[in-house]
Write a structure and sequence with these properties.
Blueprint lengths: L1 H18 L5 E6 L2 E6 L2 E3 L1 E5 L4 H7 L3 E3 L5 H13 L3 E6 L11 H18 L5 E8 L9 H17 L4 E7 L2 H10 L5 E5 L7 H7 L6 E5 L21 H14 L7 E6 L32 H11 L9 E7 L9 E3 L4 E8 L7 E8 L16 E8 L3 E4 L5 E10 L5 E11 L1
Parallel strand pairs: 4-5, 4-11, 5-6, 6-7, 7-8, 8-9, 9-10, 10-11, 13-19
Antiparallel strand pairs: 1-2, 2-3, 12-14, 14-17, 15-16, 15-18, 18-19
């Protein structure tokens, strides 16, 4: 009887262990694709780039956020913020793009210590989904064995400590980087790919590479400034926020959801940043700029993500801004105006809910202090004062020569602001 009872208890223990949901994130091959499971449940990454307004992200249907780096204390804060909003974190670990760093033993020892500390501190944290070792480190020619073998070392070390979380790296839209990862960094569970205007080519690029594992789109959004048309003086032409809304929805539905090897994405940027303009990649407008009456409102791209993540039409939508003209010329026509002479700017806008619209106008010098690979850029200097109208028309005079950009922010009073801008050159 005791023997039978012992066998029963042993079998029951095995059953409990095998039937209990597996803790943490795992990826399994499934047919010609892959499946992500988190704590035993099938999952798909509906992520945002950044930790801004995670309450809005969560209520819009997102379930994850991405960071680009941080020390132990900042990771703790991010984890707590994610938990508060029912989300998980792809936690970035910063690595440099400069090739010479990967021959610097002092630097490498520092990174080993950092990664070990992160893995040991957060190995049981239920709010972290994935570690992201480096972001586009292959740029500047850093795409060989020296770099990727170090990533492999860090990935293998973190996985030996942390059994709960996935380990990844992030690359630009770059087949050769995928080939290098396949050769030198096999311990990575998944690869993140940043892609904008070329996002529809990602599926084929991955299929044609030597890399055979799963991937996620870790940055995507509007057409980038390096991919768009420019004026005669090489000022890149930014899409209107309505054009961005359309491409966000199209790219999510047809590119990201179109490959079984893709396990989700992180839309960029769930916040605001200056990159060529203050609005190019920003899914929220600025909120703390002196003289600019904006409070960090949502743009139409937030509306777009709520629609594709939930499959439900939002009750409130953003103003629809479809174009801007300077003295009757669209941005692609390279509008030039005379110094000291008034010119007219007109915006094409409407509101689906027929709200009254307010137009906020600002003129900035064209950006000249430019970053690389998404690095910091200062906000360009303003010319004149910000002013507001209730009609989509403004008369502006610029008294100095140079390259400028006229911005229109269109507010509906419901928490949305739509954006559009046009480069303009002032000559004698």
């Amino acid at each position: 009887m005791r023997l039978q009872l012992g066998i029963f208890i042993a079998l029951a223990s095995v059953c409990v262990a095998s039937c209990a949901p597996q803790q943490g994130a795992v990826i399994r091959k499934k047919g010609d694709g892959f499946e992500l499971r988190v704590d035993g449940e099938k999952s798909y990454i509906r992520g945002v780039g950044g930790t801004n307004r995670l309450d809005v992200a969560s209520s819009s249907g997102a379930n994850a956020c991405r960071t680009w780096g941080g020390d132990v204390e900042s990771v703790k804060r991010t984890s707590e913020l994610a938990a508060k909003n029912g989300m998980r974190v792809m936690q970035g670990i910063w690595l440099p793009k400069e090739l010479e760093k990967y021959s610097d033993e002092e630097f490498k020892n520092g990174m080993r210590q950092t990664c070990r500390e992160l893995a040991e501190t957060f190995k049981d944290d239920p709010n972290i989904l994935c570690w992201g070792i480096g972001n586009e480190i292959e740029l500047s020619g850093s795409n060989g064995a020296v770099v990727w073998s170090f990533v492999e070392e860090l990935a293998a070390m973190m996985k030996s400590i942390d059994k709960r979380h996935l380990v990844s790296t992030v690359i630009a839209h770059n087949k050769s980087a995928l080939d290098s990862i396949a050769r030198y960094a096999p311990s990575l569970d998944i690869v993140g790919i940043n892609s904008y205007g070329s996002i529809f080519q990602v599926k084929d690029m991955v299929a044609e590479s030597d890399y055979k594992g799963p991937y996620m789109i870790t940055e995507w959004g509007p057409t980038g400034w390096w991919e768009t048309s420019s004026t005669a003086w090489k000022a890149p032409i930014e899409q209107t926020s309505e054009q961005k809304r359309q491409v966000y929805e199209e790219r999510y539905n047809n590119a990201i959801l179109g490959d079984k090897r893709c396990l989700g994405s992180f839309v960029f940027l769930w916040g605001q940043k200056e990159e060529r303009t203050p609005t190019w990649f920003s899914m929220f407008v600025e909120g703390r700029v002196k003289g600019l009456p904006l409070k960090g409102e949502k743009t139409p791209m937030v509306e777009a993500m709520q629609r594709v993540w939930t499959g439900v039409e939002p009750e409130q939508t953003a103003p629809v801004v479809t174009g801007i003209k300077v003295n009757g010329l669209a941005p692609v026509e390279s509008p030039v105006v005379a110094k000291g002479k008034s010119f007219r700017v007109e915006v094409a806008a409407k509101d689906r809910e027929e709200e009254n619209l307010t137009y906020i106008w600002e003129v900035l010098y064209e950006a000249t202090k430019l970053g690389f690979g998404g690095s910091y850029e200062p906000r360009p200097e303003r010319y004149g004062e910000v002013f507001t109208t209730t009609e989509p028309v403004a008369d502006i005079t610029i008294d100095v020569e140079g390259n400028f950009r006229v911005y229109a922010y269109v507010a509906d009073g419901t928490g949305f602001v739509s954006t559009v801008n046009s480069p303009v050159q002032v000559q004698k």
